[in-house]
Design goal:
The chain is mainly α and about 325 residues long. The protein has one domain: Na+/H+ antiporter like fold, CATH 1.20.1530. It contains 13 helices and no strands. It is globular and about 50 Å long.
Length: about 325
């Protein structure tokens, strides 16, 4: 028991400490808030897409990927969105509704998921996880673009929607990595070494920047939204989507990948799409903060239980 506890603890605590470091340095004004804004943009446009490219490129399609889980992840992603949409759409003003729908539907798989799974089970596991993530990201990005524009009162032609999804830095990184994985293309040693170095700093920098973005000042105003999100996104939805997998006998790497997908905190895109398309940015920012804090403990509990029950092998 102690071994499994320490495995979970040592996997999750580095993420929390990196985010705490970013938060404290921002609060202490060691780095001005404007500086962190630039780091956010750098992570969004380069480092997180690079994480996705690097992880997907190194994935081995011949082992570890469960077709059943791939299909399940795709269908569950759509189901999670539909549940969120029909629960929320008429209960809140449009700008708050679309922000909460996004929060409940999309997880921060690149920034939280990949480093977490790497810390606990190694980079090979992260490569397999990234393949599931490609499928989930393609679907949820398309749904979220449509959703934000629908609440804004705009319709998007299918061709324009496809272009918007494919232009997303995260999708570009994933698809380019997928192409490299399929073709087996590799770079000269000095380029590979440089890429290894970039990958080693990409996740810590993204977590550091995420922590610096935390703002707690408006939590009281949105306490009902935060409480509902904790109950639905952090507790109910993981149970709803993980239980069938356990009953179907899914285990080890595939079950772990699904666990990360369904328990990850809300994506930063909840905030950025609220700013860039339509939504309530202040609410989005609070949801990112509190789901990140809540989910660290939820993931710890799920992972520890799975290890103890033998569903996942260390």
């Amino acid at each position: 028991m102690l071994g499994n506890f320490m495995l979970c603890f040592n996997g999750i605590m580095p993420l929390m400490l990196l985010m705490l470091s970013g938060y404290l340095l921002c609060r202490l004004k060691v780095i001005p808030r404007e500086g962190f804004a630039q780091v956010d943009m750098l992570c969004y446009k380069f480092f997180i897409p690079f994480i996705l490219f690097y992880s997907t490129r190194n994935a081995d399609f011949s082992t570890g990927v469960d077709p059943l889980c791939m299909v399940y992840a795709a269908l569950a992603t759509v189901a999670q969105y539909l549940i969120s949409y029909f629960l929320i759409r008429k209960r809140l003003p449009p700008d708050e509704a679309v922000t909460l729908i996004h929060c409940w539907s999309q997880g921060n798989l690149a920034v939280i998921g990949i480093p977490l799974i790497t810390n606990i089970f190694g980079s090979e596991t992260a490569s397999i996880f990234s393949l599931y993530m490609v499928v989930v990201n393609l679907i949820i990005n398309a749904l979220m673009i449509v959703c934000h524009n629908k609440f804004k009162g705009q319709k998007i032609p299918l061709g324009e929607l496809a272009l918007r999804v494919l232009r997303s830095p995260y999708i570009v990184g994933s698809l380019v990595g997928l192409a490299f994985s399929i073709t087996g293309i590799r770079f000269p040693v000095f380029v590979e070494s440089t890429m290894d170095s970039l990958y080693s700093i990409a996740s810590p920098l993204a977590l550091f920047s995420l922590g610096a973005s935390f703002r707690f000042g408006e939590a009281r105003q949105y306490r009902k939204h935060i409480a509902a999100t904790f109950i639905v996104k952090c507790i109910i939805m993981p149970v709803v989507f993980m239980l069938p997998l356990v009953l179907l006998g899914v285990r080890d790497l595939s079950l772990l990948s699904m666990l990360i997908i369904f328990t990850c905190p809300t994506a930063v895109a909840t905030y950025t799409m609220s700013v860039g398309i339509y939504g309530k940015p202040a609410l989005g920012a609070q949801l990112v903060v509190f789901t990140t804090l809540f989910s660290m403990f939820i993931i710890f509990a799920w992972l520890f239980a799975f290890l103890q029950l033998g569903f996942v092998s260390a």
